[in-house]
Amino acid sequence: MNCEEAVQWIHAQRYTGHKNGLENTRALLKALGNPERAYPSVHIAGTNGKGSTAAMVESCLRTCGYKTGLYTSPYLEKYQERIRVNGNLIPEKALIEGVEAIQAACRHLQNRPTTFEIGTALAFWYFREAGVTAAVVECGLGGRCDCTNVLTPVVSLIAAIGMDHMLYLGDTLEKIAWEKAGIFKPHVPAVVARQSEELHAVFARAALEKGAPLSVAEPPLPLEITPYSSRFSLPEFGEFEIRLPGRHQLMNASLALNGLRASGFALDPAALRRGMREAAWPGRLEWMGNFLLDGAHNPQGARMLRAYLDEHFSGQPLTLLTGMMRDKQPEACAEVLSGAFCRVIATSVSEPRAMEPEALAQLYRDRGIPAVAAPTPEQALALAKGRVVVAGSLYLVGAIRSLLKEGAEWNSITCRCS
């Protein structure tokens, strides 16, 4: 088996695996010797911002001297991005060995695990094999029934809540928040990002039922906001710089820092400042030449992107290159984004849930924005001129990111837009 075949096998289980609460994951991990118990972990849920928060927490733990594991989803360009140790992708040899161990374990299970259950088990197995001393784990979908919820972490974090995955999590913010709060554990500190009072009432009830000490991360004081970085001050922590663009990242930074303080990990203030400054999270307000890549795949993400564009590029000619999944409220996203762009290029990606480019383009035409449809990301990129924002689906962001890196003109493009 080579690495490509191993990854193909993982993806193939999407169609054969059977979701069975957390029992499949528990059974699979037990067969692997319960690797998730070999290291302390930080568990992070939320609708938007949990990946950025995870990146900041991992970076800070690494600069504080811990050997870190980071498990996130989805990936942009290659599967190995989901599983990292000390910032490095899981090696192909380790991925193959892990898949072989999981295949052997699966032969003794009553139910076939799903793709995400296998990926989670692979991450936990590799973290143990690599000898990590702190793991940072992002929930996939929801929290309560997400297969990562087999963890008993040292701290549980919840980032911003928004309307997403309503078929599975509920049709109100309060219902979704309740599902996310399902990661709370008895006697494990829980930290949530400051949100509406209605959502905090949900978090407080969940924490009380679970016996989890609850605290709220408050927004920090902005000191300087640029299109590429931010400086802020947070009481009891001091001043920090982050290079994750967007004013919303300040709240994620507060969540990360407050979560680290509640975790019990030994932390050095100077190392924390360095870790926050060095944190990176590709595909989220990431500049590649004159292209801005952002995984704004739902209305909440679209509002964050719009706020960033209005703050830094209001009145400037911008083109939107977009592709979306049908189940991600594309009409609501178009309503938010349309006023920021003078032109739209709609395309698709190789996913069964992808919206047809022509139908997506029509949503913007209905709002008075000139829009064209391109069947593939390659054809869409060929039409893109000037300053271009790529947003709507992380699958699209990953595809365009790969094309930009492979393009013949890439070496002549500067790291930031002019």
From TrEMBL:
EC number: 6.3.2.17
Catalytic reactions on record: (6S)-5,6,7,8-tetrahydrofolyl-(gamma-L-Glu)(n) + L-glutamate + ATP = (6S)-5,6,7,8-tetrahydrofolyl-(gamma-L-Glu)(n+1) + ADP + phosphate + H(+)
Cofactor(s) in the UniProt record: Mg(2+)
Gene3D superfamilies: Mur ligase, C-terminal domain, Mur-like, catalytic domain
Pfam families: Mur_ligase_C (PF02875), Mur_ligase_M (PF08245)
Keywords: ATP-binding, Ligase, Magnesium, Metal-binding, Nucleotide-binding
Gene Ontology CC terms, in alphabetical order: cytoplasm
Domain annotation Mur ligase C-terminal: ranges: 283-393
Coiled-coil ranges from the UniProt annotation: none
A GO term, aspect molecular function: metal ion binding
Family as reported in the entry's similarity comment: Belongs to the folylpolyglutamate synthase family.
Designated name of the protein: tetrahydrofolate synthase
Native source species: Candidatus Pullichristensenella excrementigallinarum
